[in-house]
Amino acid sequence: MKKDNTSSFDDAPRPANAGSGDPVKFTLLAEEGSRSSGGASPENHRVLLVEDQPDVARVTALGLAHLGVEVRVAATGSAALEQALAFRPTLVLLDLDLPDFNGHEVARRLRAQREFDAVWLVALTSWNTPDMRQRSVEAGMVEHLAKPIDLDVLARLLARLPRAFL
Hints:
The protein is of the alpha/beta class. The protein contains five helices and seven strands; from the N terminus they run E-E-E-H-E-H-E-H-E-H-E-H. Helix content is about 30%, strand content about 25%. Strand 6, helix 4 and strand 7 form a beta-alpha-beta unit. Helix 2 packs parallel to helix 3.
């Protein structure tokens, strides 16, 4: 049996000549049982991916959709805050280098709102130094992952998410 995972790139940057501004959507059909099992089922999770590089956002979102999660993409810190309120993610993957303000600031602003206390905030970045890892912890992130992210790492991360979300 196939499962339909539709994802939207509502906030992905678009070229100036890009039509009406309708969201770019894709559908990924994955065979049931093709995803790894163990821990919490990924199908019950909502992931907000905050990434300003369109190619990185698309590849990462496709990987997440393959794992069975519902994915939304935001390309700026401001869009991430708006999407988080509307989408209510169980996991937020945050690039640290965003065009308006950085991922640490997004994390701090989300942590300042009680409704995001249990949401897992994870840095997803090429800035993988001890100092940046410490700054991620101080901003309220539970993980600091280096790009490019491996699909197996994402699967293990999703499997570790608390069952309270389910």
